[in-house]
Amino acid sequence: MLDIVGKRKWFFLLSALIIIPGLIAMGITWARYGTPVRLSIDFTSGSLLEAQFQKAVPPEQVRAVALAQGVQDPQVQSAGSDGKTVIIRSKPLDTAAKVAFEAALSKQFGPLQEQRFDTVGPAVGDEVTRAAVTAVVIASVAILLFIAFSFRRVPNALRFGVCATAATVHDILVALGFFAIMGLLFGWEADSLFLTALLTMIGFSVQDTIVVFDRIRENVPKHRGEPYELIVNRSLTETLHRSLAVELTAVFVLTAILFFGGATMKQFAAVLLVGMLSGSYSSICNAVPLLVVWQNGEIGQFFRSLRRQPAAQA
Questions:
Q1: Out of 36, 136, 178, 270, which could bridge 26 as a Cys pair, Cβ 3.0 to 4.6 Å?
Q2: Cα separations in angstroms, 149 against 131, 140, 146, 167, 215
Q3: For residue 229, how many C-alpha atoms fall within 13 Å in the half-sphere facing its CB?
Q4: Domains defined for the chain, CATH in brackets
Q5: Phi (first) and psi of residue 48, to 5 degrees
Q6: How many angstroms separate the Cα of 153 from the Cα of each of 156, 196, 233?
């Protein structure tokens, strides 16, 4: 039988080592942009124009044309390795301003092909941002209450919900940290698909956690008198094959999308892939060991030892 719970300190340490670089990246992103991850116009409002030219175009020259046309706060970056495609972000553009801007670009750099144009007003951007935060918070609270209710006949049922929510928070931090790092390195920006990936990831993570918790609930009365850690390890061993089967199936699909899907789906697939890997890990190596730590009273022992150390030094 695998002794997964016995190695919980190493799993907690590994989680910390994974999360800390992401937190640093989120801190840097917050200092630069005012948010933990770079946000697209879905959340911030503005216009996005993606244009392809027949020759390579320097982004700084495109920005100069934008400023000359009165485009406010233009941000220009190359979207392809050949330098022929650029993405221009700015304050919201109306139809007339967009047509005039494209005409100026064509005059300066030659014919262009519009690949994409999106514009979102400030009111819509604020509404989407509030809805995104509300959705994540409500999902986390609902998970806590649902698990606590489902395990109400088990002693300390609330602990199951809290541990599942802690694992969910772990996965959210991993996904946000990954996206923040990619935003700093490659300019990734969170859009509505990112929110979809985040909520989907939460669902998969909770599903894995509930499967293991449910088996623990079944095994506790069956193996009365056995140490709690032994019961938990048995439950993990019995459900591990199912978790891996579901995980691998999803990983294969997401990997295919990541490598062969369209450009707009790659960020979605990458975030969901990282989130699902984190979800499977946290369900087995964080949520369940945390439940054992709580059951054994190790959390209280840890804080009591911290209080004793200053007293001993005094």
A1: 36
A2: 26, 14, 5, 18, 16
A3: 14
A4: 5-37+124-300 (1.20.1640.10), 47-119 (3.30.70.3220)
A5: -130, 125
A6: 9, 34, 21
Give 136's contacts (C-beta < 8 A, 6+ positions apart).
Answer: 172, 198, 199, 202
CB neighbour list of residue 166: distance below 8 Å, 6 or more residues apart = 286, 287, 290
Q: Which run of H or E residues covers position 189?
A: none
Q: Which amino acid is it at 156?
A: N
Residue 269 CB coordination number (10 Å): 21
State the Cα angle at 198 between 244 and 49, rounded to 5°: 130
CA distances from 81 to 48, 85, 89, 279, 310 (A): 20, 9, 19, 34, 58
Q: What is the pTM of this model?
A: 0.80
pLDDT digits (tens, 9 = 90+) for 24-47: 999 999 999 888 999 887 777 789
CA distance 215 to 232: 9
Distance of CA 200 to the CA centre of its chain: 10
Opening angle at CA 62, ends 61 and 65, nearest 5? 90
- State which amino acid sits at residue 300: G
Q: Which two tokens stand for residue 222?
A: 């069956």
Residue with tokens 């990734």: 188
End-to-end C-alpha distance for the chain, whole angstroms: 46
- Residue 130 CA to residue 43 CA, distance in Å, equals 9
Phi, psi angle pair for 76, to nearest 5°: -120, 135
Tens-digit pLDDT profile for residues 60-108 = 999 999 999 999 888 888 876 788 999 898 888 989 999 999 999 999 9
Q: How far apart are CA 168 and CA 206, in angstroms?
A: 7
